[in-house]
Amino acid sequence: MQTRFPPDARDGDTVQIEATVTQCEVQLRPRRMLKVTVDDGTGTCVLTFFSFYPSQQKTMAVGTQLRIRGEIKGGFWGRQMMHPAFKVAGGELPQALTPVYPTAAGLPQPYLRRAIASAMQQDAAMLSLGALQKLGYGEYAAPHCAAQPHAAAALASAVARLV
Hints:
This protein has two domains: 14-88, CATH 2.40.50.140; 109-162, no CATH class. 34% of the residues lie in helices and 29% in strands. It has helices at 54-59, 109-126, 129-135, 138-147, 149-162, and strands spanning 14-27, 33-39, 44-49, 65-75, 78-82, 85-88. It has a five-stranded mixed β-barrel with strand order 1-2-3-5-4. Strand 1 (14-27) and strand 2 form a beta hairpin. The longest helix has 18 residues, at 109-126. The two termini are 40 Å apart.
């Protein structure tokens, strides 16, 4: 996952960086705003927050390492991001992406993730690659399932429901 400014980033591109806060101040003119300057080793960027809480200001103290994601804009004073998403960087970046499932209103993603993980565990206990072969799907699933053993159970479950 990219954590520095890509050299080919243009105005309007959404980028994710990991950077250290070098300056954090509240400016009162023309209106109250939080200006945070960060440096990722390849350059600096100014983060601007028009509405913010004191806790956010404390989180972005000088020297803090942040992961920031937002739309980059070039300006007279260099790169800027307006209201980017950020969090304190801690530990390594995840090796896998978190799945986001289509949902209905009021059904949160964490609930869906738990329900799907539970269903996959139950199916894995009941079915295997052998079950796929008995259904006649073994030749299609074998290469994929050999690389990812948990996929055999999920695929077998899906096939069993269709048959």
